[in-house]
Amino acid sequence: MSLAALHPDAIPAPVRAVCARLGARGHGAWVVGGCVRDLLRGAEVSDWDICTTARPEEVRKAFRRTVPTGLQHGTVTVLHEGEGYEVTTLRGEGAYSDGRRPDEVFFVDDVVEDLARRDFTVNAIAYDPLADDVVDPHGGQVDLEARVIRAVGDPGERFREDGLRVLRGARFVATLGFALEPATRAAIPGALDVFAQVSKERVREEWLKTVRKARVASPAFRTMAETGILARSCALLEALREGDGEAFEAALTALDATGARQDDPAFRLAALFHPLAGRQDALAAWLREYRFSNEERKRVLHLVRHGLPASDLATGPAVAVRRWLMDIGPAHLADVMAFARAVAPAPWHAELAARARGETQAGHALAVGDLAVGGHDVIAALGGQGGRRVGELLRQLLEDVVEEPARNTPETLRARLQELTAPGEVAGP
Ligand code: ATP
Ligand code: MG
């Protein structure tokens, strides 16, 4: 791979303007990290990070609008022409006595010192757009050309300083499409006990970044599996490698098949986890443990549970299609079909989608909200009592109506409610 040239014109004017403002005040300023790496390899830059010799309070004084995003780490967000840029004071490497976070942050004046604390050589290049000067003490450009992810300094030491770095390395295998340099890779197993101490939130963020940033994300998970990272962070997925490993391969294939959905990480994780439909409780517990949002958790579980409909739905009785729509929630039809098409494409999907749309358009009740009676009717039938029973009875009515749509009239359903709530009657599925 030949690298794109670093040139002041390659840096957006507002970013240069931020550097120039700091320069005019006598401070050094560089673009650094992921943006320089992505610029050199000709990829789109998502955010521009700037590092500077200016202390955070000096950065705040130099610009009219700033946000103290991470003052304790030396980071100030500068708002310039409607965009935010993270400006971070040069830092040295603090001790990581617990492998989770530096014990202390200290500021330095030499950009070379700041680059030495960074994780991989390709992430440890700084560029001064005013002087048109590249600072690359660890051979980052050579490694970029060779498409290699190499730790800065001694890999074993660097991985044990911050256990998250092993996972970041696996992530870059997919997001950059590079290979781990052999000594870097070989150092991972020796750092797994430190990795196991890393906070679940940081691990979750790397998982999300992997599926957001890599169209072909499987190399990250394959690397995690082969180096032992996966066994230490997701035993459920690791267990799919047992036997001939076919289930694990199916998980990776499905993950890559959703490459067009990088904006939808829950969709992609559901594809990865789809072989775990039989272990939904354990999957739910894992998603909680790693602090995925409630929304992400529900979406992953919903797709894992319902995302692969049975083929006989395409040819069986209409009532089975209605039952299925009731189970998935009719509002989720498009999502579920998109998932099925991506993960296990089959010719009968078109048939099923058409039949499902037919049932929806026929106006049949498929959700509680479609019933000809509402919660107030149920409460009246219960003699004024609310509570959980109301939802249960509505669900029972819906199941009746899904079996026989003609029953969805107020009269029929009120009569049925009388039946279901008659003394001594035990209703329910
Ligand atoms: P991406 O483009 O995928 O965001 P990135 O390299 O920008 O990749 P970030 O997490 O945004 O990754 O971090 C920005 C920079 O900070 C990195 O390029 C690297 O120089 C440094 N860095 C981030 N995390 C660590 C870490 N755990 N240890 C050492 N350096 C790190
Ligand atoms: Mg970044």
Detailed description of the structure:
The chain has helices at residues 13-24, 34-40, 56-62, 111-116, 140-146, 155-161, 164-175, 182-186, 192-195, 200-213, 218-227, 229-233, 235-239, 246-257, 265-273, 280-289, 294-306, 318-328, 333-343, 348-361, 375-381, 388-403, 410-421, and strands at residues 29-32, 49-52, 66-70, 75-80, 83-89, 91-92, 106-107, 126-128, 133-135, 148-149, 179-180. Helices cover 50% and strands 9% of the residues. It folds into 4 domains: 8-143, Beta Polymerase, domain 2 (2-Layer Sandwich), CATH 3.30.460; 155-306, cca-adding enzyme, domain 2, CATH 1.10.3090.10; 311-361, no CATH class; 368-420. The radius of gyration is 28 Å and the shape is elongated. The protein contains 23 helices and 11 strands. Strand 4 (75-80) and strand 5 (83-89) form a beta hairpin. Helix 7 packs antiparallel against helix 11 and helix 10 packs across helix 15 (265-273). With 429 residues, it is of the alpha+beta class. The structure holds adenosine-5'-triphosphate and magnesium ion (MG). The site of magnesium ion (MG) has 2 residues, from loops.
- Identify the strand order in the major beta sheet: 3-4-5-2-1-8-9
**CATH class category of the largest domain:** Mainly Alpha
Mean pLDDT: 94
Our estimate of the beta-strand percent is: 5-15%
**CATH architecture annotation name of the largest domain:** Orthogonal Bundle
Oligomer: single chain
SS elements, strand count:
11
Based on CA inertia axes, which overall geometry fits? elongated
Uncertain spans: none
- Indicate how many domains the architecture comprises: 4
Under CATH, the homologous superfamily of the largest domain reads cca-adding enzyme, domain 2
List cofactors, ions and other ligands: adenosine-5'-triphosphate, magnesium ion
Based on CA atoms alone, the radius of gyration comes out at 28 Å
How much helix is in the residues? 40-55%
Count the DSSP helices: 23
